[in-house]
Amino acid sequence: MQARNTGVLIGAAAGAVLIAIAPAAAADAAHGKVVFQTCAACHSDKPDAIGPSLRGVYGRKSAALEDFRYSPAMQRANLTWDDANLRAYIKDPQAKVKGNRMPFGGLSSDADIDDVIAYLKDYK
Ligand code: HEC
Hints:
Layout: H1 2-25, H2 29-40, H3 72-77, H4 83-91, H5 93-96, H6 110-121
Helix pairs in contact: 2-6, 4-6
């Protein structure tokens, strides 16, 4: 009995590790492009766009574009848009950069977030 229970536990632990690793490994930039349509409503290349251009945003400092008027909160944020910071901001913009002016509640699906980040890496 004892031995069998241990086996089940080890099996469950291995499963949990696989689930934790899966989203990053499976990030799908093609699907990310579809998800990005939600962002593109504001993050377009038009001069009157509501949001700053996200071309080349991956690896860039926050509030780095000279031709966009960022909120004071975003100007103070002092972040580099790497995986961790993008993930937190896209999931819950107000929690990550309190008082920023992105009128967007965030994406709830972790898979969608990973996919859109995969897309942003190549969006230049
Ligand atoms: C309704 C409009 C709107 C939508 C939709 C939107 N954003 Fe934004 N976003 C903004 C605005 C406005 C800012 C500038 C915020 C500030 O200055 O406080 C911003 C800022 C950002 C920044 C910081 C850029 C920089 O140069 O520092 C990132 C990254 C970002 N958004 C990602 C996204 C992603 C990814 C999506 C889609 C999942 C998205 N946004 C959807 C309006 C939007």
